[in-house]
Protein 1
Amino acid sequence: MATKDLSKVRYHVFLCEGDSCTKRGACDVTSTLRAEIARLGLDEVVHTTRTRCNGRCQDGPIVIVYPDGIWYRDVSTESAAEIVTNHLAEELILHNTLLYQFRAERNDPKYSSDNDTDAK
Ligand code: FES
């Protein structure tokens, strides 16, 4: 069993694999997101956890990124890759698939829609 060095982790990503999200492609989203993390060498700084239902089935597949408190909806394999290349690698939120932002510090420029990406 592996023991991850948590001291380098900057992001914890929750990948919903409840029944509804799974029916809508969540397992492919998980595979793509994890492969993209590996491809970009982000394994040490991003930890992923598959979860059961997060209570937003109609918006699934759901991907949640902490500590930013960002909930992404309708995540496809394409947008899963974009979450990695934009959010996890460059700290750019994908506003076109943003469901909810939990974090209170909303004046942080990182959360401005001015930082929107071209990601679909
Ligand atoms: S199964 Fe993913 S939110 Fe319900």
Protein 2
Amino acid sequence: MLRLGLSWYLQRSPRDVRLENNSRGKPFLADESVVRFNVTHSDGLALIAFTTAGEVGIDVETVDRAVDAMELASRYFTTGEVAMIAAGVTPREQASIFLRLWTRKEAVLKAAGYGIVSGLDTIDVSQHLASGVSLRNTQHKVAETRWMVRDLQAINGFVGAVAAPPGDWSAHHWQVSYEDVFDRVFERFPGTS
Ligand SMILES: CC(C)(COP(=O)(O)OP(=O)(O)OC[C@H]1O[C@@H](n2cnc3c(N)ncnc32)[C@H](O)[C@@H]1OP(=O)(O)O)[C@@H](O)C(=O)NCCC(=O)NCCS
């Protein structure tokens, strides 16, 4: 699906989409391109973010996921985030806030290409999203980087977020079926199988 999506986006045969992974598993286009992408999947839904605005990270989680929000947050989240979750009145509301924060964090850590093993508390996503959040990754001794995060709205049953460098960008999403993408790519590149 990723190869087909990239073929569609780049208007290039799927055979000519060459992919490589960074040392932490983040896939990228092997040939020089301003196009960046990132993938997430959860419970039968896959999202692929495409952009020319710089590195991008995306995350989606199903809202039905049972989580002990306070327990997990107190172990892995910052104090600001824990306070935000604790403000939820019911466990269900706390879980919903937790998942929202989780997807923001994961989107940023995926944009940076580290993945979550670099430490969920290296970033605080409880506020100032519009002006950007800083990722301080002392573990990997890289300079602090700034990212802007947007929550993905209106995906029924799911919560999600996307992150990219600060700038004048917004996130739009479309839901397409595998068959639709395949048909379009096949129409344009009839040799595809
Ligand atoms: C990336 C990561 C956050 C994905 O978590 P997840 O919630 O299970 O999965 P998601 O559905 O959101 O994303 C999966 C996709 O992210 C992409 N991805 C993989 N590693 C990535 C990374 N380091 N950064 C950004 N994106 C990554 C892939 O396209 C992957 O798709 P695939 O599962 O079909 O291969 C997690 O696997 C991780 O932290 N990986 C880093 C592992 C690492 O550091 N390895 C070092 C070698 S020892």
